[in-house]
Amino acid sequence: MFREYTYGIKGVKFSADGNTIVSISCNDICSIWDVRSEKALQYLEGHCDTINDAQFSSDGQVIVSCSDDKTIRLWDVKTGNQQKVLQGHSYGVTSAQFAPNGHLIVSGSRDKTIRIWDIVSGKDIKTMTGHFQCVTQVTYSPDGQTIASSSDDGTVGIWDVHSFQRICELKLYSQSVRTVQFSPDGLFIISCTSDNKIRICDLKSQKVVLKLEGHSRYLNGARIFPCDQIIASCSSDNTVRLWDTKSGQEIETLDGHSGCVTGIDISPDGAIIASCSDDQTIRLWKW
């Protein structure tokens, strides 16, 4: 168990090799942790408002973070030094992710836009519009050819990375869509909505093929395992739950946090679940 002193933790992500974790906390700092020793390696300080997302580059050398201070920042993992500040969004940045090729970043914002950034120049090379409320999350497909975006407007958009056009809009939700993720094969979308349900949508038919229900309070995140057979979710009901993606049945409930479970991630080998909470801890669950 990792303890983040006196601050709640909002999010957690593994590095590609599974050896380190980056967390974001309520004191506007990103922390880098060694998984084996459970010790903090670096603290990344520079944002001046709430940090909403952070993740490693595929080579594990850089972290991208984004904040309500309207910026996206790049950090050197080894030194903890800030490398670049990307500016252009007019409101808080809710989500940022590296492209699989490592050359670009996609971001989503409360300004209702999605932006593509060149890492070398730090410049905004394209702004995509279409959502009419806050963009809550953005993510690249596994092959890097499309981007999925979720929004408080109750839709998920699928965008072509070459034309920058929205090629599909999933209007399947009557509630805010909080998170979005592609399945490992890129054929399905997994989303969390504010009605406490996880939905799995087939991109070809554009239909919801499975709903996962069981959390009693607000859903804060869901991640699919690399094997494509299990989804882990976290909620303000203080639990992590595991679900079978074929039957939709709950497999197990993981209890241990004493506060809202605010974020979750799966190690690249699928052997460990990391969860974080308002109770100021990160917990690792071996699966």
In terms of topology, how is this protein built?
Elements: E1 2-3, E2 9-14, E3 20-25, E4 29-34, E5 39-45, E6 51-56, E7 62-67, E8 71-76, E9 82-87, E10 93-98, E11 104-109, E12 114-118, E13 124-128, E14 135-140, E15 146-151, E16 156-160, E17 166-170, E18 177-182, E19 188-193, E20 197-202, E21 207-213, E22 219-224, E23 230-235, E24 240-244, E25 250-254, E26 261-266, E27 272-277, E28 281-286
Antiparallel strand pairs: 1-28, 2-3, 3-4, 4-5, 6-7, 7-8, 8-9, 10-11, 11-12, 12-13, 14-15, 15-16, 16-17, 18-19, 19-20, 20-21, 22-23, 23-24, 24-25, 26-27, 27-28
**Shape, please?**
globular
**CATH class descriptor of the largest domain:** Mainly Beta
Average pLDDT score: 94
Largest sheet: 4 strands, antiparallel
Our count of domains comes out at 2
Radius of gyration over all CA atoms, rounded: 17 Å
**Low-confidence spans:** none
Q: How many runs of DSSP E, i.e. beta strands?
A: 28
Beta-strand content: over 45%
CATH level-4 homologous superfamily of the largest domain: YVTN repeat-like/Quinoprotein amine dehydrogenase
Q: Which architecture name of the largest domain does CATH use? A: 7 Propeller
In terms of quaternary structure, what is this? single chain
| CATH fold descriptor of the largest domain | Methylamine Dehydrogenase, Chain H
Topology pattern, helix = H, strand = E:
EEEEEEEEEEEEEEEEEEEEEEEEEEEE
- Helix percentage: under 10%
